[in-house]
Amino acid sequence: QRAVVMVLEAVYEQDFLPCSYGFRPGRSAHDALQALREAVMTDGGGYVLEADIRDFFGSIPHDRLREVLAQRMRDGVLTRLIGKWLKAGVLEDDRIARSATGSPQGGVISPLLANVYLHVVLDTWFEREVKPRLAGSAQLIRYADDFVIVFACKDDADRVQGILPARFAVYGLT
């Protein structure tokens, strides 16, 4: 898995947006906190929407994750290998438990797959679709499945809070 992570990082690190901090080379929780501080203190953000995606690592739908990976990865060998890892299941009480959702807990590749998925589900959607339609400024800061969005306008914060559940539902998240 480590070798595959190295290959995928070379592909995806150039795509990831500056708002993403978790499990990335050279980007720490302290960096995320500094970005939050700047958004609130310097950029005039007065309204903060904080969220944690419920059971994120356990609820990523495999079919949707494979679709997201296929948008950027053309290597069939790698996509099939990742698919096998996702389907492999977990040994619990001498039984193999398989699921159509979730990224293997503790797997070396799981944090990267999570970032790839949320890059599409949240990061690029917010930056390209949502942010241009807001009345004021806003900044997304995400660390793995935890994120905050700092808004200058309360109406923008309320609108985004209202549309997030529908966006996540499309991708099997809550």
Order of strands across the main sheet: 1-5-4
Count of runs of 4 or more consecutive helical residues: 7
What is the CA–CA distance across the termini?
28 Å
| Class by SSE composition | alpha+beta
Structure description:
The structure is a single chain. The chain has 174 residues and is α+β, with helices and mostly antiparallel strands. The protein has one domain (2-170). It contains 7 helices and 5 strands. It has helices at residues 2-12, 29-41, 56-59, 62-70, 76-87, 110-130, 154-170, and strands spanning 47-52, 90-92, 95-97, 138-143, 146-151. The strands form 2 sheets. A 3-stranded antiparallel beta sheet has the order 1-5-4, sandwiched between helices. Strands 2-3 form a two-stranded antiparallel ribbon. A hairpin with a 2-residue loop joins strand 2 and strand 3 (95-97). Helix 4 (62-70) runs antiparallel to helix 5 (76-87). The longest helix has 21 residues, at 110-130. It is globular. The model has no long low-confidence stretch (mean pLDDT 91).
Task: Name a few traits of the molecule.
alpha+beta; 3-stranded antiparallel beta sheet; 7 helices; 14% strand
Question: What is this structure's SSE topology?
Answer:
Blueprint: H1 2-12, H2 29-41, E1 47-52, H3 56-59, H4 62-70, H5 76-87, E2 90-92, E3 95-97, H6 110-130, E4 138-143, E5 146-151, H7 154-170
Antiparallel strand pairs: 1-5, 2-3, 4-5
Helix pairs in contact: 4-5
Q: Concise description?
A:
By secondary structure, the protein is α+β, with helices and mostly antiparallel strands. It is 50% helix and 14% strand.
